Amino acid sequence: MLVATCTALIVAGGRGRRFGGPLPKQYALLGARPVLSHTLAALRAAPGIGRMRVVIAPGDELHYQASAAGFDLPAPVLGGSSRQQSVLNGLEALVPESPDLVAIHDAARPFVRPIDIAACLEAVAMAGVDGAILGVPLLDTLKRVEEGGIVSETLPRRDLWRAQTPQVFRFAALLKAHRAAAALAGTEVTALTDDAAVAERAGLRIVMVPGSEDNRKITTAEDLQQLSTMETRAALGFDVHGFAPGRAVVLGGISIPHSQSLSGHSDADVALHALTDAVLGAIGAGDIGTHFPPSDPQWRGLSSDRFLRHAVRLLAERGGRIVHLDLTLICEAPHIGPHRQAMTDSIARIAGIGSDRVSVKATTTEGLGFTGRREGIAAQAVATIETPKR
User: What does the DSSP 8-state code read for residue 127?
Assistant: First the structure.
């Protein structure tokens, strides 16, 4: 089965006149980093996003370089005089790679959740669907107001949603729709306020995917101030498993040949167990036994990647994200060095983050204790996260 490729196209060419200030909002500082840097990190953490490309305004190259430092991205695409033209320029730049899917995302939405991006990708995979967009149901009462501020009508809000990004489409279909829209003029162009409007005009079938209120767009300086309420947390996880007869141990989601296996209720992946406890601890959600009791037979022999994915999902549902995962394995054998990169990549894939946000180390106890006697393996992990202040 072929896996669809998806490239994220981040639109960062706007000037944000309502925002004010010396810099466009996408380059303003949110905490210690530009807003765009936070947005890129959120998209990189999303499973299914293979590549990223940013569209910027001419003259913003230095601001872009500061925001994209460390992400190893291709050169930015220069935008046009309108959002529609900027997106088209970005799509044209993607033609050589022609991804199956493209996710259009506003640079000023830095707290989109990886779990919601994944839901959009899953929705587009359905037969007969050309696109999927994030949104939230409209809950406020709507009034039509005429000249002079006179309320003339209450509008029904049933079936009304506020659209968000990312908006995910089949690449070829959206490119064709944007090329057709480029020929429009006047009010026809101004009516195309997002990519879903462009797709709708072309007759594409789009589905709405429930998003989160956390995925709000920065429009004013007050918005940025409200969003500057994230806090950093860190927590420690520890686990140990003894050896049992076998031919391999599972560590960090990969199987390593060895003269013994590890004994446990699940697959006894001591590395993922420690990491899971660290993430759960950082959000105050108990420990691995709280969520997957060893007394429950349904977890017997289960692959431990499910445990870590569960903890990451709980974090995402709280509007948080993983900043870094640090793992130390304590054992005399097997030798971890040859498998370090494979473990790093596996943990990053399970957690939905870049490999540069995972550290795997190993040490021994110099022959002391149960690990020194080769009776088992211990692991300790530290999870550093960002989460909204409560």
Answer: T
